[in-house]
Amino acid sequence: MTASTVIALDAMGGDRAPDIVIDGAAIARERYPKVRFLFFGDESRVKPLLDRHPVLLACSELRHTPDVITGEMKPSLALRQGRNSSMRLAVNAVAEGNAASVVSAGNTGAMLAVAKFVLKTLPGIDRPAIAALVPTMRGETVMLDMGANIECDAENLVQFALMGAIFCRAVLGVNNPLIGLLNIGTEELKGHDEVRTAATILRERPFPGVFQGFIEGNDIPAGTVDVVVTDGFSGNVALKTLEGTARLMNHFLKQTFLSSLPARLGYLLARGAMNKLKMRIDPRYYNGAMFLGLQGVCVKSHGGTDAVGFANAIGVAYDLIDHRFNDRISEELAKQYGLNGLSSQPSDKTQAAIAPPSADGLA
Amino acid sequence: MTASTVIALDAMGGDRAPDIVIDGAAIARERYPKVRFLFFGDESRVKPLLDRHPVLLACSELRHTPDVITGEMKPSLALRQGRNSSMRLAVNAVAEGNAASVVSAGNTGAMLAVAKFVLKTLPGIDRPAIAALVPTMRGETVMLDMGANIECDAENLVQFALMGAIFCRAVLGVNNPLIGLLNIGTEELKGHDEVRTAATILRERPFPGVFQGFIEGNDIPAGTVDVVVTDGFSGNVALKTLEGTARLMNHFLKQTFLSSLPARLGYLLARGAMNKLKMRIDPRYYNGAMFLGLQGVCVKSHGGTDAVGFANAIGVAYDLIDHRFNDRISEELAKQYGLNGLSSQPSDKTQAAIAPPSADGLA
CA A309, A315, A320, A322: dihedral to nearest 10 degrees? Predict the structure, then answer.
């Protein structure tokens, strides 16, 4: 097993763990034959499930972990008392170089706290962000932050924009991604100070993509931009509203088809196409929120997902590794700092520390 | 004309004004025969349009206004330079007692600034909020604030909850409305300080409705509560995301029906039912955002709406007048203060000011 193809899995995280984790890994194994898995969980529960999938078993290793971080546990408590939990040890595997990424369907707040504590942020990134893909009229859009940071300053937002842009380039293959800052109006005067300052910086700084300015909530599903940048509060509200509205529309549609005999017959005729539509907006296909900005790839699956959804979350982790996402962020940050003359600041300081002070103290 | 049945209309506000305003009023006139209209606008443009609707003309009065507040004008400029604008004079009509409410499809920021300046807030309300109705799985939900206040403190949110609850009782006929505070998780520990403090107050204070605690974005379209309370930034993002997602789903649905011959045939059969679905989510039927908390009823129509949408905005104004919404807010606030012992505070102070100080200064 070389770490570059290993994904650590928290077998105990999620409403239907460990079953969906093992079944999901079995589906992912078929899709990505190169991948190997490192399971962390209660051996007595995980081993019998693994035994059902001989192909998966052959490319997996199981580490017994005595503890579990529950869905209700506070992040601070999870950090203190979860040192021997399946989640923590799976994250540790990435920090120790035994896995290239980790996937968990467990407690989001706990995973974020553990991942931040164990993996640390990438140099040049102050705070990690949770990113998600959303279906839009023009394909799909990456949106961040989805809830890691309730309040963000302008520089945080700029860093999110940078990470989103590189994700688009590296993973989605969009070379010149359009970036939008979520606001409540497209005029320059609107919104918080943080959002307006971030816009000013993004307009001035050389950037891997095209800054489109402010966008509004309706622009998210419209696919106006490739990257939607926002604070974790608004992002979380927007993502969940979008998901809920898709469910509402499905509900209305079902009622519509049941409302009359011709409508029922119509549904029978259109059923094949309707099933394709269902797949297109199936939340399982958009499962797998990414914690971007950490020294290691972390993917958080929805807690209530099934095996198919969990397999898709593993797919997200695979894509991030396969496209060397974190390396590209680091390369871009180095380039950014160079372009901005920021990289010369640390070396200036080093020089200043080494060089003897000049007479006027200005050296 | 008695003011109680008069609605002042800004004939020049909106992308397709004055046409949609006059045509919308003609539709509203049919629905509400008691209503009379006071139009404010450019006489040379409005008069010929009014002449086309004899029934409307008979119950209307037209006041010539030389100026227009454009869509791009900053609120501060609109306040200073818009004194003779159709919008300002229509709002003035409410302040002067010549109309019971005002409807405009013009610049939202300008209308809010003008309405706040001219009408002032109701006693006990610190800031007006923009409220809107959204379609949900359980009917419709009132959501506020939709963008009047980008940042809100806990007391603002509590006042929004109160206004939303009274709106539900007075206008929607929901006697015991469920109130939810929008957050990014339902746990008590999540969210901004403001949201958590507001929740504490709402749990403790006697309230016209049932406080359900925190809700998330997906709860809005699910209709989990009757009143969604949030700050103007998140509320605006949520509402526009909801509208955009409904459009996205319609777009997907159209593509689905065009994707194969059976699907096309199916659509033909289901068409009648589909048209009903269309009506159910038609944004025109949810047109008319209310500025709640002012000493006068103000309704803001979507700027890009048509005559049907504008007629619905007039309907919203009519409902607010007809159900004596503002009187009920004032009554409830008086009751609230009484229940909380807050009303006794001012009188205590008065007494303290009159009574001679006792020797130990504790009186």
Answer: 180
Establish whether the linkage from the previous residue to B145 is cis, with ω within 30° of 0.
Answer: yes
User: What residues make up the domain containing A19?
Assistant: 1-120+294-323
The mean pLDDT value for A42-51 works out to 97
A280 in the same domain as A140: yes
Q: Find the closest chain A residue to B234 by CA distance.
A: A234
The answer to whether the CB atoms of B216 and A233 lie below 8 A apart is no
Nearest-CA distance B178 → chain A (Å): 19
**Do A216 and B237 count as a contact with CB atoms less than 8 A apart?**
yes
**Nearest chain B CA: its distance from A105 CA (Å):** 16
Q: What residues are paired with B210 via a beta bridge?
A: B178
The predicted complex's ipTM stands at 0.85
- Regarding whether B15 and B106 lie in a shared domain, the answer is yes
Q: Is the pLDDT of residue B256 over 50?
A: yes
Q: What is the pTM of this model?
A: 0.86
Total structural domains in chain A? 2
Note whether A216 and A184 are within 8 A (CB): yes
User: What gap in Å lies between CA A211 and CA B344, rounded to an integer?
Assistant: 56
B331 falls within a domain: no
Residue B341, phi then psi, degrees to nearest 5: 70, 10
* Whether residues A98 and A193 fall in one domain: no
Looking up residue A49, the CATH number of its domain turns out to be 3.40.718.10
CA distance B203 to chain A (A): 22
- Based on the fold, state whether residues B2 and B143 are members of the same structural domain: no
Average pLDDT, chain B: 87
**Using the beta-carbon criterion (under 8 Å), do A245 and B241 form an inter-chain contact?**
yes
